[in-house]
Amino acid sequence: MFLGPSDVPLNLIAPVRSSLVALPRHVMHQQTKVLHLCFVLWFSSMGGLVPLLSLLCCLTFLLQEAAPATFTITNSCDYTVWPGILSNAGAPPPSTTGFALPPGQSLAVTVASVWSGRIWGRTLCSTDSSGTFSCATADCGSGAAECSGRGAAPPATLAEFTLAGGTGGDDFYDVSLVDGFNVPMLVAPDAPAPAPANGSCQATGCPADVNRACPAELRVAAPPPAAATAAVACRSACEAFAEAEYCCSGAYGSPAACAPTPYSRFFKAACPAAYSYAYDDATSTFTCAAAGGGYDVVFCPGTSRLKSGGNPEAAGLPPSNPTMEFSGDAGSSLVTSRNTVVALLMAIVSLTSMRWC
């Protein structure tokens, strides 16, 4: 006898389905259909070991699909960085949108398995006498450490993500200097699927300290009492000059019309894997079928340390490193809900009891 979804006892599905409510609505609907299918296959069988193993495999797939993604954010700089996180419109918010990250520290931030947004680092942050929090670079303007839906003011090095947005649920990610540069950054999948199913799954970023080589007309000077010539950020030509040629707007608003400029070539030479201008897609966008959806985001990756009187510069401009491998402790890439595991086990026990009791 073949059973349909309406024939499956709701008291068995409800505990498992309740563990999916944190997912986006369309993802939860898809996972609920898979859940129904798991139980339909079980109830339509004659029982025994093979159907039980099939049910376990089905539920394991469901559990993996429902797991959130984890960004392990690490500060390898010699100064405190205040990461900021912004979800794109329609994407659920992360577990935090901003925090202080002292030198040598890491923090795991969770987002939904289907998510898009950006991560950046703020520097030289403080709270004034009125209690307002602000940063000299990449400030989000919220007046607090949490950015709460606000983006980074340029110049800012940006890590951009679209999780499960590609064919077959692949991720897209990049590091962008289109809005300028303020801190070296690396992005790397922490547990990619085995090749050839993993897309490119390469590390990307801008490990060089572009501030030290920034052209004078793009340089953002450090606030007092630092030296007037010290730079804490490097503006994009678009922000500095607001001309269509540099902003890829107006008559230059297409890939064919907007070509690299001397300024974008400067950024590209320093960081070949990062976006240097709006249409720099060919060498700057990466994909990955991530197992567990985890990524490492590292500030000041693999560079020597340089303490310079409060000026947040991580190192001199190093030679380009085409591999950019991160050798830190990535931690676990799969964040699994304890409630989900318990609910799945309870459902299996209940089903087994009904079949053989």
Automatic annotation (TrEMBL):
PANTHER family linked to this entry: OS03G0233200 PROTEIN
SMART domains reported for this sequence: THN (SM00205)
Source organism (scientific name): Panicum hallii var. hallii
Superkingdom field: Eukaryota
Identification of the protein by name: Thaumatin-like protein 1
Xref: InterPro entries: Osmotin/thaumatin-like_sf, Thaumatin, Thaumatin_CS
Pfam families with a match to the protein in the record: Thaumatin
Matches recorded under SUPFAM superfamilies: Osmotin, thaumatin-like protein (SSF49870)
